[in-house]
Design goal:
It is built from nine helices and ten strands. The chain is of the alpha+beta class and 283 residues long. Among the domains are: 62 residues, Arc Repressor Mutant, subunit A (Orthogonal Bundle), CATH 1.10.10; 74 residues; 48 residues, no CATH class. Helix 1 packs across helix 3 and helix 2 crosses helix 3. The longest helix has 16 residues. The N and C termini lie far apart (62 Å).
Length: 283
């Protein structure tokens, strides 16, 4: 009999990727695993396993006594890029979402995995929708925004063109007609959005000076940060940091939009209030 696995179909590819994931993270694969998850026959499961071995020879061997396939120490992945968060979600009962929202130590699998849950900074669904629609359709919006710098909550007209995420919350990149420049506005600080298509599409009256430049230069321009271990670290510590951040020749290069550079520096601990280099791991 010929091989029954049609590796061109999406379902067959999903089964092959599952085989690889199981072998890599659990160290074993059983036909029953495939049968239970995909609802296929044991014959089809055997065919899938054989097909995977044809694609990745030596990935695992069959243990006749245990009646299971066991991964070899030399196994390499050919279909997937192994990710620890996905393995935890699939095999330790955690939340499959990358943000880990809703997973705590009381959930299944919590006995051997702990994930720090940070406060969620989200805007209301209506605010998010209207900002998104404005970006999508190139419209002006009037927002009631609470500024931390001024300590005031006031209305202002924005011309949004992009969204940014700093790893913790979303902000909208927009031309502020009141300040006549491009700024970032944290979505969770927008209390209300007045979005009226007719009003948004009306030309601005006596506000030629408020018209934005052709482009948002800081958004369009890219910079490359060269990050290295702090010079105050000892040799062993420097090597550990290089390995921790997968540096090459002691340097980590990160390409980022100019408008997002400050957020990246904050996340990496590269900025200080007095402007001095941080006494931490990176510089």
């Amino acid at each position: 009999m010929g091989n029954k696995t049609n590796d061109r179909t999406w379902a067959a590819q999903e089964r092959l990727r599952f085989i690889e994931t199981c072998a890599w993270w659990k160290g074993v694969v059983q036909r029953q695993d495939l049968g239970d998850l995909f609802g296929i026959s044991m014959a089809q499961a055997s065919s899938d396993l054989q097909r995977y071995l044809e694609m990745n020879p030596g990935a695992f061997v069959y243990n006749l006594r245990q009646k299971r396939y066991e991964a070899t120490a030399e196994m390499k992945c050919v279909l997937t890029r192994p990710r620890l968060d996905e393995a935890v979600a699939r095999f330790l009962g955690g939340d499959a979402r990358s943000t880990w929202t809703g997973w705590n130590d009381e959930s299944e699998g919590g006995g051997c995995v702990a994930v720090l849950k940070m406060p969620v900074r989200e805007a209301g669904a209506v605010v998010e929708r209207r900002v998104f629609l404005a970006i999508l359709n190139g419209l002006r919006i009037k927002v009631r925004y609470a500024s931390v710098n001024s300590g005031k909550e006031e209305w202002r007209w924005l011309q949004p063109h992009a969204l940014g995420h700093n790893g913790a919350r979303w902000h909208v990149r927009a031309w502020c007609e009141d300040n006549a420049d491009f700024r970032d506005f944290t979505l969770s600080r927008i209390a209300e959005v007045e979005w009226n298509r007719e009003a948004a599409e009306q030309p601005m009256v006596d506000q030629e000076e408020a018209e934005p430049p052709v482009i948002d230069k800081d958004w369009e321009d890219w910079v490359t940060l060269r990050v290295s271990p702090h010079r105050g670290l000892g040799e062993a510590a420097r090597k550990a940091v290089e390995r921790d951040y997968a540096m090459r020749n002691g340097v980590l290069k990160i390409k980022v939009r100019k408008a997002m550079e400050g957020y990246l520096r904050d996340r990496l601990g590269l900025t200080m209030a007095d402007g001095k280099p941080p006494a931490r791991l990176l510089e």
